[in-house]
User: Fold these one by one.
Assistant:
Number 1:
Amino acid sequence: MAEKVISANWKALNDKELPICRFFNRLIQNRFVRYGFCLATRLGNGLIWYAFFATLPLVDPLKGWRVSLLMLVSGAIGYGLYKLMKHLTHRARPYINHSQLISPVKPLDFYSFPSGHTLHAFSLSTILSFFYPGISYLLWLFSSIVAASRVALAHHYLSDVLAGGGIGLIVGYTVLNFAM
């Protein structure tokens, strides 16, 4: 019974968010925009964060190891949370629910709530911005582009991305608070 209520609630929210999804999805009709969003999603899938993990201890021996460890802890907590939430909520991705939406890349899994890419981008940007405020503008710009790409590629609804960003901020700040 509870699953039927959740499904009905998702359907109502999905229908309300469809115009936003359509708007963003139309942007990828331009091949340069599509390429940019596909690249942002690919980098946000872990590549950029793995590069930080690997290089921080080398370029900043004094605190790089600590920052990498905090990012690793934050990433692990975020991964556990978003996997649990996807398992509990079962919200299908927009391109699955709405045939008029086009997804040019294959998603990592079937469910959309919350956005793991956005969760990790916000969580890890929170930690990196705390220790390296000089690059925070670039981190938050990249994180915002990753979030927008998830909607444009029809992998997430706006509420998935907002939830992922909020959870990511909470995880990032929580890890920082425990570490300080």
Number 2:
Amino acid sequence: MGKMQKVRAKKHLGQHFLRDLSVAEDIVNAMSLHGGYEKVLEVGPGMGVLTDFLVKKEGFETYLVDIDTESIAYLYAHYPELAVSERIIEGDFLRMDLEKRIGRPLGVIGNFPYNISSQIFFKILENRHIVPEVVGMVQKEVAERIAAKPGSKTYGILSVLVQAYYETEYLFTVPPHVFNPPPKVDSGVLRLRRNSTEQLDCDEKLFFRVVKQAFGMRRKTLRNALKSLLTDELRGLEVLNQRAEQLSVADFVSLTQKISG
């Protein structure tokens, strides 16, 4: 199958194929093996532009997962050594049992499809106990949002939840012309490295709920946004005069502790 045919085949997945090999190499070289993982899963490898560099890099085994059957056929044809060792997986990354299928610890890398990039990061958060490092290329505004600091207009749900468990770096910007088809916006490359927080010092399920509810009405003060979670005793807390984007991860942990009583 020709590359242009494959581009058309995956257009519905929101994926834009990287064709600049130097950018691909930089993305792969950003993996530092933080946390001592020996297996790397590439999400949505498509035509193998990143894969070509991954399979040459020493220190880990490469696994590939793609939901598109035509991509899988291409990968089987071009990476027979991965096919023989059952490291090419046809399936949905968002539904995979990563530990059961691949093991731990596990690095994740990819040129992530724009239309599911946030879902990919939520999946990684669910598997934070086995994923010590992630290098991913996403839409620039999503990358900036994840790496944003408190007080920024782009600081939001993903910023807080990801930064609660990962040190987050915005590495570099990638312009549209190096993709086929070119997206209408710039892309950004992120690196996440698992921090030392094994478990937050609060009810983690409640923490996720507090963060999501707080940013769900980000223009309102926390007193109004979190109204359904507050007792009469808590409504006088000074922190509730602020808006969600003003709180750090530690502030949200502290607030969750108070709400849980």
Number 3:
Amino acid sequence: MRFSFIALAAILALSGCSQKGAFGLFTMDEAHERAVEQLRSDRIVLSMETKAILTAVYLNPVYPEEYKDGEYFIGAFYFEKRNLDVKKWTLDDHGYTLSLNGAAPVSMEEIKEKDPRRTLIPVQNNWYRYYLIRFDTVSAPNLSLRLENNQTGSVVLNYQKAQ
């Protein structure tokens, strides 16, 4: 008898549950879905220590009407601490260079914390610096975004251009 009351109470309590599933909480707009498709990340590891991390989103497929006068990326950079204030360093301070298919960037604009463009890249923390990076237009269908340092190594993120 007790079991039937407990079972009845459980059935009544659970019958009021919502029909929504957990995946309803993760819906994204179309731009964010395309940004996730274009997200790439890799790290440079030397002697089992992470020396640098590059995470980037290729923006041309995300906003094709806005970014058409070059190849655009949002890049998040992390470098191991070398007594440098994370808010003041540049790529050159750490001896790193960035290139796309061998060409240097035309411009790198830092993206501040409150900038809405930062929401396109899911990596959000105080150890990273975020940049909007512009390269000249590349005619090749394959893009290779390379971060390298002569002492620690390099990392390459590969992308495909839309045809």
Number 4:
Amino acid sequence: MEKVRAKKNLGQHFLRDLDAARRIVELLSCHEGYTKVLEIGPGMGVLTQYLLQHPEYETSVVELDRESVAYLQVHYPALSPRIHSADFLHLKLDELLGGSPFAIVGNFPYNISSQILFKVLDYKDLVPEVVGMFQKEVAVRIASKPGNKDYGILSVLLQAFYDIEYSFSLPPEAFDPPPKVNSGVIRLKRNGVTDLGCDESKFKAVVKMGFNQRRKTLRNALRALQIADHPLLNKRAEQLGVADFIELTQLVGSGIIPNVEITEE
């Protein structure tokens, strides 16, 4: 009981559906070039046991909870050298696995799942694939296309660099303790884009500013920027695809770009 309570405080819910765990691992499409896999938040090793059934993967795990780390060391001794007792959000991913590309997989703590993906974006050239469990509404948002009310900041920023597929859903009963929401599994695969054709920091600012006032036209939402007039400014952020946001970013002047926080996501 103390174990479950501790993990719940970390935003973690143990996956108890073994078939779902197997399906998550099977979604990984690692091949020669990135055979390393990093699991975030393995807990008691429900996903880990299936990862270790693939000798072609060099599996490592990152776990913050010390009791879980101790459990993994006892039950998966061969994994011990690759168990990192740390907070994923504070890790330098370019140093963690020797600078080699690696896939990320996990039943992610829901309270930091968006932060995990923003960190993935920071290291996108090292992370060709992500397969993860999220709160369903977050998973749907990430995979949503323009014109959908669920489409938002994460949708655009991630879809600029990844092809995203919503794979399957799970009810609360698949977890212990059960969350109060449904869950969804998505797969992100790097799309090969290395250059957006615009300044990436400006692109992020335009996307964030547009969605922070998503009920307004972009002409109003982006009024703080030096941006040339364009028909796209008459639309709202949720109506624009990645290419549209790139086109708008190319029109932004050379003035100072504000550091934009997310206020609606």
